[in-house]
Give the backbone structure.
Amino acid sequence: MITLEKRPQPSKLWTAITPVLAVIATMIAGGLMFALLGKDPFIAIRTIFWDPLFNEQFAAFSRPQLLVKAAPLILIATGLAMGFRAGVWNIGAEGQYIMGAISGAAVGLAFHPTESVFIFPLMVAAGALGGFLWAMIPGILKVRFHTNEILVSLLLVYVAEFILASMALGALRNPEGNGFPGSRNFKEYPSAFNAELLPNTGLHWGVVAAIVAVIFAYILFSKHMMGFHIRLAGQAPKAARFGGVEPARLILFCLGTSGALAGLAGLFEVSGPAGQISIDFNVGYGFTAIIVAFLGRLNPIGILLAGLLMALTYIGGELASFMLGVPSAAIQAFQGMLLFFLLAVDVLTNYRIRFGKREVV
Amino acid sequence: MDLSAISPTLLVASLMVAATPILLAALGELIVEKSGVLNLGVEGMMITGAICGFAIAVESGSPVLGFAAAAVGGAVLSLIFGLLTQILLSNQVATGLALTLFGLGLSSMLGQGYVGLRPPSVEKLNFGPLGDIPFIGPVLFNHDWMVYVTLLLCVGSWVVLKFTRVGLILRAVGENHDAAHALGYKVVKVRLLAIMFGGACAGLGGAYLSLIRVPQWTEGMTAGAGWIALAIVVFASWRPLRVLLGAYLFGGVTVLQLNLQAAGLAIPVEYLSMSPYLITIAVLVIMSAPRKGGKSRASLAAPACLGRAFHASN
C-alpha cells in the first residue's frame, strides 16, 4: 500500500527538480499526442525544442523571436507570482494586458504626427496605468465587497476584448486606413515605435522591462518587508493578520502590481512586435503567463527560465505547424499538459511517499 | 430603433434556450462545490463537451449519441482534475485553471476538421394541443428535449440534495470532511464521483451550445459561459432552484441584448455584447457584499470545506 506522508516543510530539492520532471513527462505525453496525430514524435519534439535554437536554417530567424515572446510572458508572470504567493488569484492578466495596450497606444496615437523623445515614455506610463486601473476593479471589489477576484478578473477579460474590438473599429481606427479595422501602425511612427535596441537580437524595451521586473521581484521577496508579508499571508493567513499584515493593502498591492506589469507587457507588444491595435493583436500571453508563473515556482529567477522555455514552445510550435503540419492548437494543449504534469509531480515536494502496509484506519 | 419588433413571447421562449447551457454547467458545478471541491475548469470541460458532442453527432448523425459523447468527454476530462486534486493533492485553483487552458487547446485541436459543418438538427418536442395555448404554449411547450431534461435535472438535484441520504452524505463531505471521514464515508470517492458528475453536466452544456443553440463548431465558442456558470453558483447561494433563477436571469439579459442589437439601439454592438459579463460582476458584488451582521450571503451559504484539500493523515 502506498501512502502519502506530509512533509513538515516543502522539500527544497524536489522544488527544483519537479519542473524538470514535468517538462520531461510533457515531452513524452506530447510525443504520444503527436504520434496519434500521425507525426513522428521524435521529429516533432526536436522541431519544437531544438530546431528554433540550433537548426542552421531557422535559428537566425527564430532566436530573436525567443526574447520577443519571452518578454511579455516574464513581465506578466512576475506580477502574477506575487499575487499567487499571497493567495490573491489574478487570472485576468489578459484583460489588463489589452487595456494597457489600448491606453498606451491611445496616448501615442493622440500625439501623431508630432515627433518627440517624450512620447514613448509617456506611452509606457499610460500602459502601466491602464493595466493597473483595470486590475483595481477586482481589487477594490474584493476589498470593499469581498467579491471573488478570480471570477471578476476573468470576466473582465471578455469585457476588455469587446472594448478592444470597439477601439479597433472605432475610436483608434486609422483615419487613412481605407476603412479597414485597426489603428495606425507604430512602425511608421518612430517616436512611438518600440524598436529593436540591438539589431537581430529581438531585444526591445519590453525585454529590458522584464529583466528589471525580475530583479525587483527578487529583491522584494528576499529583502523587503512587503515580500515577507506576501509570503506570510500565503502560507499562514491567520498568523499574518495577527502579525499586523493588512489584507486589504496586500490585495491591492498584488493586483495593482500584476495589472501594471501586464499593462506594460501589452504596451510593449502593441507598439513593437504587433505594431498596431487590431481586433486580435492579443494572443493569450496573459493566460500562458499563469503556466509560466507556476513552472517558475513563483520564483522570479525560475520565472525567467520558465518564460524562455514557454517562448520556445511558442516558436517551436509555429515551426512544427509550418514544417510538419502539426495543428497550431496542439501547442496550446501541450502547454496545458505541462501545467498538469507540474501540479501532479508537485506532490513529491509536499509529501513523502511511503511504501508498506497501512494500519487499519 | 423599433422596440415593438421585440416580442415578449419569443423573448421568454428563447431565454430558456439561451439559459440551458449555463444552467447545465452551473448545476454540475453546484454538486461539485457542495462536495467541497472548487473546480475552475468548467470552461475547459464545456468546450471539450462541445467538440466531442459535435464530432460524434456529425459522424453518427444522431444528436443523442452526440450528447452522450459530450457527457463522457466532460467526465473524462474532469477525472484528470479529480485525480490531481484528490489523489495527488494539488492546489484546486491552479489545477482548475490548467483544466481550462488544456481543454481550450484540446478542443481546438480536435475540432480541426469540423469548422463550418452543420450538425444533425434536433426536433422540437410536440405536445399537441398544449403548444397552441397562447403565450404559455410557445414559451413552455415548444422546445427541444434537452431543455426539459435540464429542468428535470435541476429539480432532481434539489430533491437529491434536500431529501435523500446520498445528498446528506455529499453535503457532509462538503461541510466537514474530517467529520465525514470519521463517520466512515469515503471522502475521496464521494468527491471524485461529484467531480465526474460536474464534468458530465458541463460537457452536456457545451454540446447544447454546439448542437442546438448556435449550432455549429467554432474555436473558443463557449466565450466565458463556464465562468458565468461559476458565478451563477455563487449567485444562487449553492441552491439548485436558485441556479435555475440565475441562469434564466442571465439568459434573459443575453437574449434581450441580442434583440436590442437587432432592433438597432443607438448603443454600439460591442457595449451591448459586454453587458452579460458586467451584469454577472454586478450580481457577484451584491451577493458577496457584507450585510449588517458582518457576513455576506455568499460566505454564509458556501460549503465550509470548499476548496480545501483532504488528506487522511493517520
In short: Chain B has a mean pLDDT of 86. Chain B has one domain: 3-122+139-301.
